[in-house]
Write a structure and sequence with these properties.
Strand content: 5-15%
Strand order of the largest sheet: 3-9-6-5-4-7-8
Oligomer: single chain
Number of helices: 11
Largest sheet: 7 strands, mixed
Shape: elongated
Order of helices and strands: HEEHHEEEEHEHEHHEHHHH
Number of domains: 2
Length: 340
């Protein structure tokens, strides 16, 4: 600089990667005044992937960013590049509990799957916070032959008890899941009561497994999903942006409602895999005592018989008039809508 005392050095740029020039300046050059902006920011003006949209229009009133546009950009760029280019906040892959490379997608469900539905009601009062948790109802499917798990559909929104019961029955009519997990802690236990009342009204009955207490914290339960993702055993649909964002932001993200609902199904997956292992041993060891006893007592178990055929798509017969709610991407899109 010709006049150091009168000159200024101005560095303008966009973040690309952790440890880039801009981060080095912010970390090692305290004489710089840092002005950092993002397309989404919290109330203090800091980058926040779930914050308010900053530039909704240009100075002359031309629309610029909205929720749909940002979702399209994130889907096109991927979570990492979107966070770097539009939030100026790149995340180190080493600090991600769930790696981007672990997330695999699918388009169509294979045949012969076993279904499970879980419901994670929100515990917060929408009137007590500006950013409340959501109620989540999720159905996944597992392939008993190879252990692959497919997240087929989830509803995530603020719902009153009546709406939750209705959507749960929508999932039942669409999938006939083998297992229902319902968190029944605090006020949520009343949902099980209303579910059973609805069963009596419709004369449709299925078992509900109430989760009345958790042995581990929510974060620890969600960490239990890590081995499944790292082993490429869980597949999601390409448009499940909320689930992918929660994965990549965990445990520092603002919300983890979808992940919590997914983690509730871990016992079912482990049970199916264990049953398959047991059946495999019996099936391929015809000389074993267990095999002979089963044959003699006519109790030889196969995966295509009760109770494991309850969620088997090949064996299942659908109820007349059943339907799939709008947006559900299961196998029964063609059902006509019925009124409960």
């Amino acid at each position: 600089m010709i006049e150091p005392a009168l000159s200024q050095i101005i560095v303008v740029g966009t973040r690309w990667v952790e440890g880039d020039l801009l981060e080095w300046i912010m970390t090692n050059e305290p004489q710089y005044k840092v002005i950092q902006r993002a397309v989404r920011e919290d109330i203090k003006g800091r980058p926040d992937p779930f914050g308010q949209i900053v530039w909704t229009e240009t100075d002359d009133g031309v629309p610029k960013f909205n929720e749909a546009v940002l979702n399209q950009l994130e889907a096109a760029l991927g979570h990492y590049m979107f966070a770097a280019l539009f939030l100026n906040s790149p995340t180190s892959a080493a600090n991600m509990l769930f790696k981007k490379t672990w997330i695999h997608y699918y388009e169509e469900l294979p045949d012969g799957l076993l279904f499970c539905t879980s419901q994670d009601p929100s515990s917060g009062d929408a009137d007590m916070t500006s950013d409340p948790d959501s109620d989540v109802i999720m159905t996944t499917a597992i392939n008993s032959k190879n252990g692959h798990i497919y997240v087929d559909h989830y509803n995530k929104e603020r719902m009153d008890p009546g709406e939750q019961v209705q959507i749960l029955f929508d999932h039942y009519r669409a999938y006939k899941p083998m297992r229902y997990y319902l968190e029944a802690i605090s006020y949520q236990r009343t949902l099980a009561y209303w579910m059973r009342k609805k069963m009596q009204q419709l004369n449709i009955f299925f078992p509900i497994e109430e989760v009345k207490a958790h042995k581990a914290s929510k974060n620890d339960r969600i960490r239990g999903l890590q081995p499944y993702f790292s082993a490429s055993r869980i597949f999601i649909r390409p448009d499940m942006v909320e689930l992918e964002n929660e994965l990549l932001n965990f445990p520092h993200g603002r919300h983890d409602d979808v992940l919590d609902a997914l983690s509730m199904q871990l016992p079912f997956w482990m049970e199916v895999v264990e049953e398959v292992k047991t059946s495999y041993k019996r099936e391929y060891q015809p000389g074993s005592a267990a095999f002979l006893i089963d044959e003699m007592t006519k109790r030889y178990k196969r995966k295509d018989r009760y109770p494991y055929d309850m969620g088997n798509m090949d064996e299942r017969e659908c109820l007349e008039g059943t339907f799939v709610p709008t947006g559900l991407k299961g196998r029964y899109r063609e059902f006509s809508q019925s009124i409960f």
